[in-house]
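The instructor's notes for this session suggest beginning with a concrete chain rather than abstract definitions. Hand out the sequence below and ask the class to guess, before any prediction is shown, which regions might be ordered.
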Amino acid sequence: MSTLESVVDLLAHRHPGAVEVLVGSTDQRVGDVRLVEQVDQVDDAPPGALVVLERGLAALTGDYRFDIVVRRAAAREVAALVVVLPQDARLSLTALALARRAGVAVIRLAPEVDLTAAVGTMVRQATDRLSVTVDRARAVCETIDGRALDSVDVLLDRVGMLLGRTVRIGPRPDDQVLAVPAGPDHDGWLWTERPGDPDADALLEMVLWRIAAETTRLTAERVRAEQVSRRSAGEVLVQLVEADRGARATIAPSARRLGIPVDGWHVVTRIEPDNLLEVTGDDVAAYEIRDELASLALQAAASMPGSWHVGQDPAVVLLLWTGDNPPRQDTHARLHRQLDFVLNALVGRVPGLRMFCGTGTARPGIAGLASSATEARLAVSSARFRRRSNVAVHFDSVGMRATLLEWYGSPTVQQSIDRLFAPIADLTPAKRQAMIDTVCTYLDLQGSAARTAEVLHLHRNAVRYRVQRAFEVLGIDEDDADQRLFLHLACRAQRLGDISA
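After discussion, reveal the predicted structure:
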């Protein structure tokens, strides 16, 4: 005995678009199928039967005579009535209401359906367990061969409907079920309840192997698609970090299409493997491991809320976190912990791996992304200088003071900063330092005039005037992230240099 739902599902598979449940539930058992040519033959149908009206009875479905058919079917407690009708045919509304109240389903078959073949399908489904499995196995294989299913979940839903039984992936519950290995990319088993007939069990097990092969194919396709998407987004991320201001504006639309939210708040982390070739032994293995490390870094980071993306080139892995709002203090703390978790995961994958890691501060927009990446690069330089491997060095940490002093100590850097501040060299030391302090505080506070005014005890209009005047005199374009970042570093390094002197 089968369910009405399974019979309808198989009919719909055999005759797409030609089967429609007009009223009633299909969640009931069907134990017999009767083809009737006269109304009074409905009285001979046993309870739970599926009653199919011959084509000649279609004429009575639009008037009171169909009400009589429904009443007789309800009296016999049949499961459903099947009528052959075009899609635009009108049925007696009274009859449909009667069927709904009585729990008798009414199913429409399109006129083009071969009724003899359809009845044969219904009979086999309703009365013969082995035939049910044969027909359903054929339907499952036809569906899989059609390659119309795009995910494992959709596949299991579809084959479960065609088989008339739930098919699951997971731990094997007991030895009373049919089960096959779910495939190399899934843990556990692909399993379903046994039909109970030895021949049906054997056939159904072969079907499960076919389903398992398809789950493996679909999973492999999904993994390939995710890798292509990740690599494409990663390439764009690397381009954004390395491009100048004009090029970044050109790259931004591609980044958005690939799901990189360039307009949010960004924190960039830079991870530089230092001895990957040494621990892997050859270039091919190093390349494969580098790609795996990028994927693992993304997986390890993604447990923290926010948007995560990863990019890589032969020497570096870039990890980008993006949020809708400026990160709060607790978010910063979670980011720091998450980066420790990422590094531990990478070292666990490649024992003996030595990495230098630096992370920038939170910055808004596409220009902020580039600025955070530059800060991360400076933080990595600090980590290398101090030989602090396998720990994340944060740009805004205390250790960055020494890094800035080292950077400022370079004669080339000092010459660049001298050229930057040359236009204000003739100011008195007090005015010159006041201008540098105002600009530095303004940049420290993410360009907020209001917060700068609070810190410096000035009116915000005074802050805006001083900052605008400073940018004009120094020739700085505030919208250029590179110029703004160099000015910020120069201000901070000089202030620290003056303090240490």
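Then share the key points. The chain has four domains: 2-127, 133-221, 261-397, 406-500. The longest strand covers residues 265-273.
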